[in-house]
Amino acid sequence: REKLLSRFSRIKPREIMMFSRQLALLLESGTDIVTSLELLQSQVTNQTLKRIIGEVASDIRGGSSLSTALSKHPRAFSQMYHRAIAAGEQGGNLEVVLRQMADYIERGANTEKRVKNALTYPIIIAVIAMIVIAILVTVVLPSFISLYTSFGAELPLITRILVGFTDWLGHYGLYLLLVIAVAAGIGYVYIKTPAGKYQWDKLSLHLPIIGRINLLNELSRCCRTMALLFRVGLPLPEIVALAIHGSNNKVIVEALTEVQQELIRGEGLSRPMAKRGLFLPLMVQMVGVGEETGNLDNTLITVARGFEAEADAKPNSAVV
């Protein structure tokens, strides 16, 4: 029963965020790790997360480290999360890393929420426009046609074309809907394939207005991921590897993989990025400055904030 419930019970990012902050607070107060986890387990309302915390505490009692115990539960704790925790354990600043991870998760959740809110308005407008057009074509237009016909007036060419299209929809509309449904089903199946997912992700980055927003959000998430991991002390090749693992866009993953390969060959980070137009000039320049000054984390955070501000302003400018 518990396994069945855990399969359908989703752990929200904000729950992991609260877990991280509360665990950091308990550890700073001097409470040992097992007691802290037991206290958090008693307060968590999500049954799946409650079970996972209990298993993590049990593994630690058996001699495992926190990062190793967390790595057994990828549905709750990502690879980046437990690798950052491992770096915090080695560096003796576990509480700081936990707070940084909480901030990172919170910013990611807020960014995702902003994107959804930005896309809600255009979708509502499009749906209302389609409903209005359907009412005009099926209800209003026939009334005007009958009125013109009763007076013996000749209809304008555009109106006659629209009437012909309406009549065609009346006869073949059901077949058209069937074709659209089949095409949508084939498209959905294709998107689930690796090639289809790549093409869909590529399209999502090149759509008018929305494509730019998606690209900015992907790059800002990438910058924040690398900044966080750089601060906890991970080596740059591993940072890029975890950034690759944390991205859901196949085009971004491909570009970062190529950057990682050239990074390993000793070409640095900014130079491989400059060869690929996917990485915007501001990001490339700031990464180069960060590499030269040794202040890569702060420059990446600056880039992320700039991209997020632009992404927030895009929907408003499009509406205007």
Tell me about this structure.
This protein has 320 residues and is mainly α. Helix content is 83%, strand content 0%. It is built from 15 helices and no strands. The longest helix has 58 residues, at 94-151. The radius of gyration is 27 Å and the shape is elongated.
How would the blueprint of this fold be written?
Elements: H1 2-8, H2 13-28, H3 33-43, H4 47-61, H5 66-71, H6 79-91, H7 94-151, H8 157-191, H9 194-204, H10 210-232, H11 236-246, H12 250-267, H13 270-274, H14 281-293, H15 296-319
In short:
The protein has helices at 2-8, 13-28, 33-43, 47-61, 66-71, 79-91, 94-151, 157-191, 194-204, 210-232, 236-246, 250-267, 270-274, 281-293, 296-319. With 320 residues, it is mainly alpha-helical.
Keywords, separated by commas or semicolons:
83% helix, mainly alpha, 320 residues
